[in-house]
Write a structure and sequence with these properties.
By secondary structure, this protein is of the alpha+beta class. 19% of the residues lie in helices and 38% in strands. Strand 13 (383-390) and strand 14 form a beta hairpin. The longest helix is centred in the middle third of the chain and has 23 residues, at 280-302.
């Protein structure tokens, strides 16, 4: 029936088939490409053949001409008549600057000839001059694998496209800038391929986008794997890609890496949902990538011959009929005797994941290996199991039907040193680090250690330890060289750590920081992300030069602080994956151990007489509970958080009760300008602390200087400086006045409003600000500008 739905980036076209009969009148020197066949077009066809001849001459004589000037339009016009049946759209493109190439392809089954065209400007003529062969090859291979192209012509035109790399229409596609011949071939193949799944089948991409974009991407990747065109420049692996551990940067590598990143964080979505429900990232990763490689998994499981026969049956049964998911499933179930419910029930309809794990291996007296395998995922997908006699040396891969739970299966040794699940990497297993086991030795599942400099992607065949030299500085420790050690950055891991030991030659002291954290993700609970983390750091916070009593007069020593912060964050579940609102609840406990210098004038000992130690240790313990909420909408986004800080213990008080508390609220609102990412920013702060609270919880009209930051959340280069440039460093906390204002602290209640906006035009790097605040003690305001 009629579907009055507009074109969208996510979920493009869905309309009914019809016959288009179109007449277009343009100046005579326009080259036109359109849906359908020219009616009574002998004169125009001869003119186009002349353009083909002129293009060949131009390519031979002026290949470096990049002029994009428009020639003057002819005063005389021509009317072109196009006719096409069994299509659900019509498109045409015209340009006076077009060069024209013409080709022909003989279809593999019917042996019918199809005329092919490409029309392009000087802009990327070097890579377009042979592009008609890309159209020919796409028509041939899609016809071979799915079913013969039913129309008489197919055209690709070079156009000023801004929405994606290309856009499909019946018989014709427009292609944007591509950069390289390989990229141009890829986009042309993909867009020409849409003639089948968008065009011939008429799939409803709005409701079942995988049936168009996903299946088409599967055939696109299959084409690129099997048809290495001599006109395509091979995609070279950049030095950066090799550096991070990507030996290839093909579609499979990039899409599966992106999918695994989403799936491990429970941010992926099912393949068969309404296109409007996808996040922008998932529309690309799931609809295009996951569908394509899940279909490749199905193809290899069924076998190429059975899979192709199934799709050809699907073509004959459902061309021009708008098939739905149940229709293509029915064809698969009738064509093959193998179970395909794992694909249509689990892979398509849910966001379940594939994750098989080898638990252990035992060998019996007959030399058979008995392998216990656990399905840690939710999809009982079939998988291969194979052995290796040496590193990277493949052995026979045997298909196993999928299952849930745990299963022990037999696998002959054949001299294998390693047994691996999904040995040919067919499935979308989200954790390949648990897929292998050695047949001999101890720690059979632990891979050799690989030290990796700076950054990289996860290598399932190695236990990776990333490292990087670092150098740090503050006013007390001075320069501190050190080393940072951490685990893989991409994709996300449940367990993560960063260790950064440093050494200060000036203070003759060790410093540094470290973090250990564990993450959990969920799609079904009231939370989406749980994070438990411990941070430890030790740095100098002051220094002192001994004078009279020191055995070595003038010797400098540094006073240090030890900070241990443990946190537990609950990321609350969003209303939907596309929701712009997010909220979280966090709990923190912070321990601060400070070495502080007592007043030297009071405790300075008489020379030669033992005196009091001028250094004492002070410990403080804080707890914080905070709720955060934000709305990341494009226009006028806003957020807020409110919480409670508690100080529970001090060395000066030999009790463990509450010594102070502070309530606070902080909100941000941006009044958006017409220009992207610009606007007037408003910030509101409200705070309350009772009179009995500890001095740490005095409310501050000004931003935090180093000594005000009682939780040590900010990086401070001179935490306890009172003069000099380092004393000017501050963080916008509490009332956040940009200009220091007296009096600066109070108890009771305090409120402030901060406003900030960029100057217009080229002065946008200059921001104007205004601050106004009031408390039970005083009220004040300031204003100014800042860079």
């Amino acid at each position: 029936g009629w579907n009055p739905i507009p074109y969208l980036n996510q979920g493009e076209f869905y309309s009914e088939y019809g016959t288009f009969d179109v007449k277009i009148t343009v100046p005579k020197n326009y080259v036109v490409g359109a849906t359908g066949d020219l009616v009574d077009g002998e004169k125009e066809s001869k003119w186009l053949d002349d353009q083909v001849r002129l293009t060949k001459e131009w390519v031979a004589n002026s290949p470096n001409d990049t002029s994009m000037a428009f020639p003057k339009s002819d005063a005389e016009t021509k009317t072109l008549h196009y006719h096409q049946e069994k299509v659900h759209d019509f498109a045409w493109f015209a340009d006076k600057r077009y060069h024209v190439s013409k080709g022909e392809v003989v279809l593999p089954h019917s042996k019918k000839s199809v005329t092919t065209w490409v029309m392009y400007t000087n802009n990327e003529a070097k890579i377009w001059k042979d592009a008609v062969h890309f159209v020919d090859s796409a028509i041939y291979y899609y016809s071979l694998w799915v079913g013969d192209y039913p129309y008489n012509q197919c055209t690709a035109v070079d156009g000023a496209l801004s929405a994606g790399g290309g856009m499909e229409y019946p018989n014709i596609t427009v292609i944007g800038e591509s950069g390289t011949a390989s990229q141009l071939e890829d986009v042309i193949v993909h867009e020409v391929g849409h003639n089948w799944f968008y065009g011939i089948f008429g799939s409803n991409e709005r409701r079942h986008a995988w049936m168009d974009e996903g299946i088409n991407s599967f055939y696109e990747y299959r084409y690129l794997d099997r048809n290495k065109s001599p006109f395509s420049d091979t995609m070279k692996v950049s030095k950066l890609a090799k550096f991070v551990g990507l030996e290839s940067v093909d579609n499979r590598t990039l899409f599966t890496l992106g999918y695994i990143m989403q799936a491990r964080m429970a941010k992926d979505q099912p393949m068969d949902i309404h296109s409007a429900e996808y996040t922008t990232m998932n529309y690309a990763l799931i609809v295009y990538g996951k569908t394509a490689y899940a279909l490749e998994h199905l193809q290899k499981y069924l076998g190429e011959e059975v899979f192709d026969r199934t799709m050809q049956n699907y073509f004959e049964l459902w061309k021009f009929k708008h098939p739905m998911p149940e229709d293509i499933r029915s064809v698969f179930e009738k064509t093959t005797t193998k179970n395909v419910s794992w694909y249509f029930d689990e892979m398509l309809k849910t966001s379940g994941v594939v994750d098989y794990k080898i638990c252990n291996i035992k060998k019996d007296k007959a030399g058979k290996n008995w392998i216990t395998i656990k399905n840690k995922g939710t999809v009982p997908a079939p998988f291969t199991i194979g052995g290796e006699t040496g590193p990277g040396i493949g052995k026979l891969a045997i298909w196993q039907d999928g299952f849930t739970g745990t299963k022990t299966i037999e696998f002959m040794s054949w001299g294998n040193k390693r047994i691996t699940l999904d040995v040919d990497k067919t499935s979308l297993d989200i954790n390949r680090k648990n897929n292998s086991i050695r047949t001999h030795g101890i720690l059979k599942k632990i891979e050799p250690i690989q030290f990796k400099y700076l950054l990289g992607v996860e290598n399932p065949e190695r236990t990776q330890l990333f490292w990087s030299p670092v150098i740090a500085w503050n006013n007390y420790d001075k320069w501190m060289p050190g080393l940072m050690l951490y685990n893989s950055l991409i994709p996300a891991k449940r367990f993560e750590y960063i260790l950064m030991p440093l050494y200060s030659p000036s203070a003759v002291s060790y410093a540094g920081s470290g973090m250990v954290g564990i993450n959990w993700y969920s799609k079904t609970a009231f939370w989406k992300h749980l994070e438990a983390k411990i941070n430890v750091s030790r740095y100098g916070i002051n220094d002192y030069t001994e004078k009279e009593s020191a055995p070595e007069p003038g010797k400098r020593f540094v006073l240090n602080t030890l900070r241990i912060a443990s946190s537990f964050i609950i990321g609350l579940k969003d209303k939907s994956p596309r929701s712009k609102t997010h909220s979280s609840l966090s709990f923190r406990s912070v321990y601060i151990g400070e070495e502080q210098l007592l007043q030297w004038v009071l405790y300075r000992p008489t020379p030669g007489v033992p005196g009091l130690n001028p250094v004492t240790s002070i410990t403080s313990k804080y707890q914080q509970i905070k709720y955060s909420w934000n709305n990341q909408r494009a226009l006028n986004p806003f957020d807020f958080n409110f919480g409670l800080d508690i100080k529970s213990e001090s060395n000066f008080e030999k009790v463990a009760d509450i010594l102070g508390e502070k309530l606070f609220f902080e909100g941000h609102y941006r009044l958006s300008f017409e220009k992207k990412n610009q606007g007037i920013d408003f910030r509101l702060f409200l705070g309350y602390t009772p009179d009995r609270s500890n001095n740490d919880f005095f409310l501050r009209m000004n931003g935090f200087r180093g000594q005000d930051d009682y939780l040590y959340d900010q990086v401070s280069l001179g935490r306890n400086e009172t003069d000099g440039i380092l004393s000017r460093q501050f963080a916008i906390e509490e009332c956040g006045f940009k200009v220091y204002t007296l009096p600066g602290i109070s108890k009771g209640t305090l409120a402030a409003l901060n406003v900030e906006a960029p100057m217009p035009g080229f002065l946008k790097f200059i921001h104007l600000f205004g601050d106004i605040g009031t408390s039970s003690w005083y009220r004040t305001l300031n204003h100014g500008m800042m860079l």
